[in-house]
Structures
1.
Amino acid sequence: MHRIALLGSTGSIGTSTLDVVRRLGEPFEIVSVAAGNNWEAVSRQIDEFRPRRAAMFQPEAAVALRQSLNGHPTEVLHGMEGICALACDPEVDIVIMGISGAAALPAAVEAVKAGKRVGLANKEVLVMAGEILNPLAHESGAEIIPVDSEHSALFQSLESGHHGEVSKLLLTASGGPFRETPIEEFGSITPEQALKHPTWDMGRKITIDSATMMNKSLEIIEARWLFDMPADKIDVVVHPQSIVHSMVEYCDGSVIAQLGLPDMRVPIQLAITYPRRMKSPVAPPDWSKIGELNFSKPDMEKFPSLKMGFRAAREGGTLGAVMNAANEIAVEMFFQRQINFLQIFALVESVMDTHEVNAKPSLEDVFAADTWAREQANKWVSKI
């Protein structure tokens, strides 16, 4: 059996993972699920998949879940301690990390320390602590396999050559809903408009990150640590069709790409079954109907988030954690209409500019930088 802990089971990654496992059947088994506070959805998942353990981040949600199970033997844990217990459970082989944001880091650390295969859908984990997690993975024998489409594409394309033969990692970006919107209109963009992504069906926060291209900035930093590649060997290219998920350019001029329809079940399934490929419900593209595939340079003046991502990838240390934390606050303030769309960029850049980077942080230093950045971001909002 391949025993799976699904952390973040009620979000888009979580529900897609359940669909993958449902279709794969044996020998793949969901043995634990974790979520924030949507205990009703977790209760339904327990009815179907019969996991041995579940965890709810909110204690009151754990109480409600226990009551809903009517004596079902699934053990219910709560809080970050409970989620971390699932991540390092000896009866788990694969941890799918679908929890969004910085909240995923403690569980990711525990899974890596325990030598698990970690299917990582959470960019923030490596953005915050990539240079800490990589040595931990080498020590424990853990595998970190990316689940997001771009890094899964790079992961697959890198199998065509050796690390020293790589000239460039090329991350593709859809460009989001405002790729062709004049910057003069950015100040009046509403949360409702920003949530209308042209290609992908994603969670609320990551959809806003795609609209600001902050998502791509996080991916730049993630690629830097995940593939041990310096920032000057990483680039971004806008590709609105989202068919080419990313590319690797080699020293002989060859470019290897991974292509497919935009469906997260493909990289999720590969993270679970690797190195095997198995039949999936996702059909290959019909090339006779695809038409054109377009590529262009991103506008870094219109989307200064990209400059911030390259900066954090170059400087390393605690700057990635600070950028991510400030962005999480900025996105939430945008949803609350306390700042406008343009001010997301200004807030994040201001917090980064005032941060004194710790070049060789411990995990405690990373968490401290995260807390500091959130405080600074809230102060920035209060001043305007």
2.
Amino acid sequence: MARKEEIIVGLDVGTHKVVAIVGEVKSDGGIDIIGVGTSASNGIRKGVVVNVNETMEAIQRAVHEAELMAGCTVNAVYVSVSGKDLKSFNNRGVVAVQNREVTEMDVQRVLENAKAVQIPADRTILHTVPQEFLVDDNDGIRYPIGISGVRLQVNVHIITALNSGVQNVVQCAERAGLHVLKSSAEMLASGRAVLEDDEKELGVVLVDIGGGTTDIAIYHNGFVVHSAVLPVGGDHITNDIAVGLRTPKAEAERIKIQHGCALSTMVTDDENIEVACVGGREPIVRKRKLLCDIVEPRMEEIYRLIEREIQASNFADVLGSGVVITGGTALLPGCAELGEDVLGLPVRVGYPRQVGGLRDMINSPVFSTALGLVLQGCDDENETAKDAGRSRRASAKAAKAAGNGFSARIKDWLREVF
């Protein structure tokens, strides 16, 4: 059984299901996946908790399944936050460093200065993501410690959320017997799991199309420069199928997953599907092309909204890597091809990466957010270990300096006596 300190757990509380992934930290700082659990949930709508008990029970089921597979007990988790109430903006902070080398404390001061913005009382800052540091007139600096100058500046991307939205998700996890180490915006977690570093450098749009929302994050020069949440997702496609084919919603979801296609041109006229009818009547046979004629316009609408968000961000001209789509809806055949037609950019489907262990079990866009939370947790723990190491080295240096000073005083005293 793995030791508690070696375990990192990501908990994705989504509209349709809760996903728990257990990762074990390797000696080289990497991650092996050792447990996966999923559970259907009806307690979330458009990323917002609407039923605490149902959400809590879904969390318990998913975590218990992951625990059994991993052979360990889960006590603490990193959890995702989504919903149309997530808002973001860019800001900057400036502090004086008085013509000396920038220290770690200076970096903390300038980040706190960047966070000192007025936001409504019912909102909280979820993330403050550094984009670049500037020392005097030198820009594009990623690690300013040790650089000499008079003024230190940082440009940041700030994501805020409703206090109630975050608290409700945390409350559900705590009622399930878990301690929440950190809450993370869904688009950042998914981006951590599926994006390559060179894509972030050249400019890329991360699009996570979930059940109730579509989460967007735009990266340029390696960092997030814009993020947004659209209140549309796979559920809207399902609802259209239910109405168009006159079938229950659960059956519409099944049909979408098994037979759906985002491009009707990819489907032939002779393909048929069986559709269950409302009220227990006998199933009927429909053309698969009819299903795709329902799915394609809704997917095109989602892409049009994404296009509008990209244009509003003012970063549409620096997207050298195009678009990466992930989330359950990205599994629809033709989804990437339709995206290229609508957006005029290269589009690929993002699959989880950078892990070992049970990687085949999570090799689906459905698991992107949960895995991203695990990777973010690993990043945090590695950074904490580095900070502890720097603190120990600083303490040792100070102790050595103090010891040298004491030795010098002893020598001076001995010279005076003898």
3.
Amino acid sequence: MSMRKGHAGTLESNDIFITIEERERGYGIQIELTSAVEAQYGNAIKHTLTDGAIKAGLTDLWIKAVDKGALDCTIQARLATAIDRAIHPITEGNK
């Protein structure tokens, strides 16, 4: 599957800004997480991101997430949107 860079979310309170980029085969899923609650919830956030990527069929992906206290359902929704935007980018002729 060929995809572009995708992103979703905001830097507002209770949200998360996610950027994804497909990587070469064998890269795995690498997550760069910035969160004020990383000590308490970092592993759970990374698990949600990894699980969502695998469910979408993506195994070689770089994910950057800037968390501002997002709930699990918000993390899932933002990741799904970033993936969709990376796979189906809006182009000038497809607005």
